[in-house]
């Protein structure tokens, strides 16, 4: 007996029958700056700084925070890989901290093929031992999650990896005594991945102020100009900075890769017990996130 297989056309009706209309609708267009949901970022600030609190990179609290962020990324449809690395004992902002292991969370929506262009957006998840870390840096993780939500089913101009870095905070006085997670990530990249990386943006202290600092490690930086142009298109005021090396973008730049920092407005609660969720401005989170989405568009 012969069987005839009928192939139905892909229409909104057939997608609706499969429960896929919403996903198909948002996946058919590029991401826009207006796709950002600030409430997603605010919730992360409340959970990380309000509920979990200080999360030094080798502590049980850091493990709890990493598990929560990993769960949020996976719930949004991202594939998350854990990258473990060793961290030495030291002194973090005047407080002794033990050695141990920490973890990066590396999320991808679709894998960048070696040799093909790709982008990275990152934010550090750890804090100094005495600070709940609302602005430094639950704000950055919050925007990272809002970006993950906005881009989960929408198109970006290039494949993007989202990374929550561990052990960014200092454990000593020199340039080699912090940024452990981002340095481990950069060291893990293959030669082809390095050649094809078109840019890395570090979200670090992005919830205070009325303009968004855009910092480059050197003086003239094409990637910084890209971010400034994205901010203009998104209608967000920025403050360009040069010789800015105090965030995870520096791990990329010092290894010959393109990287810039968003954020870094001075605030009174820096690295203190007063760095609580009330410090963070929803408006500033929104400004920063819109720049990122416009850059990814």
Automatic annotation (TrEMBL):
Residue ranges annotated for the Peptidase M28 domain, each copy included: 104-295
Q: Which InterPro entries does its entry note?
A: M28_fam, Peptidase_M28
What is one Pfam family matched by this protein?
Peptidase_M28
Q: Which domain of life does the UniProt lineage start with?
A: Bacteria
One GO biological-process annotation of the entry reads: proteolysis
User: Which Gene Ontology molecular-function terms are recorded?
Assistant: metalloexopeptidase activity
User: PANTHER family from the xrefs?
Assistant: METALLOPEPTIDASE M28 FAMILY MEMBER, PEPTIDASE M28 DOMAIN-CONTAINING PROTEIN
Q: What is this protein called?
A: Peptidase M28 domain-containing protein
